[in-house]
Amino acid sequence: MSPGRVRKSVARTRAASGPGTPALLRIWDGVGHGMASGDCEAVLHNTYWLSFLMRRLGLTPAADPC
């Protein structure tokens, strides 16, 4: 993705969410829309956005049951 497209995406996200609202932007090189990614990459992608969401909601992970 070109730097110009990234800047436009960030500007649109900021305009839509309001000032001071955090947003998650991850850029993965060599990755498509997720369907062609391997299992490890899919887990990593989901971990990033779920941890961001949990922080925004003030949640903490449950203790490891094992």
What does this structure look like?
- The radius of gyration is 15 Å and the shape is flat.
- It has helices spanning 3-17, 39-57.
- The protein is mostly helical.
- It has two helices and no strands.
- The mean pLDDT is 80.
- It has one domain.
- Please count the beta strands (DSSP E, at least 2 residues each): 0
Low-confidence segments, given as residue ranges, are: none
Strand content: under 5%
Helix percent reads 40-55%
Mean pLDDT: 80
Give the biggest sheet: none
Task: Please count the helical segments.
Answer: 2
- The whole-angstrom Rg is 15 Å
Distance between the termini: 41 Å
SSE order, one letter for each helix or strand: HH
Class by alpha and beta content: mainly alpha
Tags for this model:
single chain, 66 residues, mainly alpha, flat, Peptidase S33 tripeptidyl aminopeptidase-like C-terminal domain-containing protein
